[in-house]
From TrEMBL:
A Pfam family the protein falls into: Acetyltransf_8
Annotated SMART domains: AlcB (SM01006)
Keywords of this entry: Acyltransferase, Antibiotic resistance, Transferase
Phylogenetic placement of the source organism: Bacteria, Bacillati, Actinomycetota, Actinomycetes, Geodermatophilales
Domain N-acetyltransferase: 6-180
Organism: Modestobacter marinus
Name listed for the protein in its UniProt record: Lysine N-acyltransferase MbtK
Length: 180
C-alpha cells in the first residue's frame, strides 16, 4: 500500500490567496483556528517566506496541483511548545515537529495527506541532520489527522492534555513519533 507521489514546494507570497481559501474551508477551520484574512496570513506566514522565522513552510503538490500545507520546525525554536509537550512526554534533544493541513476537499481520504507528512518528515531529517525524532501532537478528536500520521509511518508515543489549537476542543491529545 504505497503512498501517492507528492512534492514539497516552499510557500510563496503568491500562494497566500490559496492559503486564505484553505484556512476558511470548513474542515480546515474546524482544526486550524487561524484567521483566514489576507492580513492575518501575511502576519503568520510572511516571516517564514522572508526567512526571518526558522519554520519551513511548504505546499504539498500532487500532479502539479497544490493540495495542502505543511510546516516543519525544531522544538528548540518553539520554547513554549517544547515546555508544554515536555510536561506529558520526553522530548529528545533536537526533536522536530510538523503541522499540516489538506486544504482541497477532494484531496482528502486518498493518501495525499500521509504522503505530504512522509515527505515533510524526510525533508526535516535532511535539513536537520542532528535530529533523530519528529514528534507530532494531535487533538484526540482529530482522528483523520492521526490516521494520516500512522499511514505515513508514525507510531503512537504518548497521550495527555495540551492546549488545543481550537478552544472548542478538549485538551486530550495523542503524540505520534517518527524516528530516523
Amino acid at each position: 500500500m504505497g503512498l501517492p507521489a507528492v512534492e514539497l514546494r516552499p510557500l510563496r507570497r503568491a500562494d497566500f490567496p490559496l492559503l486564505c481559501r484553505w484556512l476558511a474551508e470548513p474542515l480546515v477551520a474546524r482544526w486550524w483556528d487561524d484567521d483566514p484574512s489576507p492580513a492575518a496570513v501575511e502576519r503568520q506566514y510572511g516571516p517564514s517566506v522572508d526567512g526571518t522565522d526558522p519554520t519551513a513552510v511548504y505546499l504539498g503538490v500532487h500532479e502539479g496541483q497544490p493540495f495542502g500545507l505543511v510546516q516543519v520546525y525544531a522544538f528548540a525554536d518553539e520554547p513554549e511548545s517544547l515546555a508544554e509537550l515536555s510536561a506529558i512526554c520526553p522530548v529528545p534533544a533536537g526533536a522536530l515537529s510538523i503541522d499540516y493541513l489538506v486544504g482541497e476537499p477532494e484531496a482528502r481520504g486518498c493518501g495525499l495527506g500521509a504522503a505530504m507528512i512522509a515527505a515533510a518528515v524526510a525533508r526535516g531529517f535532511a535539513d536537520h541532520p542532528g535530529a533523530q525524532d519528529v514528534l507530532v501532537p494531535v487533538a484526540l478528536g482529530n482522528e483523520g489527522s492521526w490516521r494520516a500520521l500512522r499511514r505515513a509511518g508514525a507510531r503512537w508515543y504518548a497521550a495527555g492534555e495540551l492546549v488545543p489549537d481550537n478552544p472548542v476542543d478538549p485538551p486530550d491529545h495523542v503524540v505520534h513519533r517518527f524516528t530516523r
